[in-house]
Recover the amino acids of this structure.
């Protein structure tokens, strides 16, 4: 099973759309399981500021990302990225989550 997941990531890395995700970055994801893809529909910061809509503005520590199926994940770091109604690829390993949006990796937790 792990070999299948790794092979899937390897094939993604070789596709033109994900060309900047290196094999060494993919190797760090060994053991993760793909949860699926979800569309980001909003977020809420720790200070209560909310944004519901079509734009994603990256992560800040503690920001809750809201998906189209009403599932949520919290950011564990900071990284800025602007995207319009992006799809997110979600992976999990134990209690650790990784979210990819437009080739950018975001560390997350439940």
């Amino acid at each position: 099973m792990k070999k299948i997941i790794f092979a899937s990531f390897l094939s993604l890395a070789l596709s033109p759309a994900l060309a900047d995700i290196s094999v060494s970055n993919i190797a760090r994801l060994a053991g993760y399981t793909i949860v699926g893809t979800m569309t980001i529909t909003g977020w809420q910061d720790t200070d209560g500021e909310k944004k519901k809509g079509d734009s994603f503005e990256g992560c800040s520590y503690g920001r809750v990302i809201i998906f189209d199926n009403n599932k949520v994940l919290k950011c564990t770091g900071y990284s800025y990225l602007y995207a319009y109604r992006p799809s997110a690829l979600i992976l999990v390993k134990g209690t650790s989550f990784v979210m990819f949006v437009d080739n950018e990796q975001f560390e997350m937790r439940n």
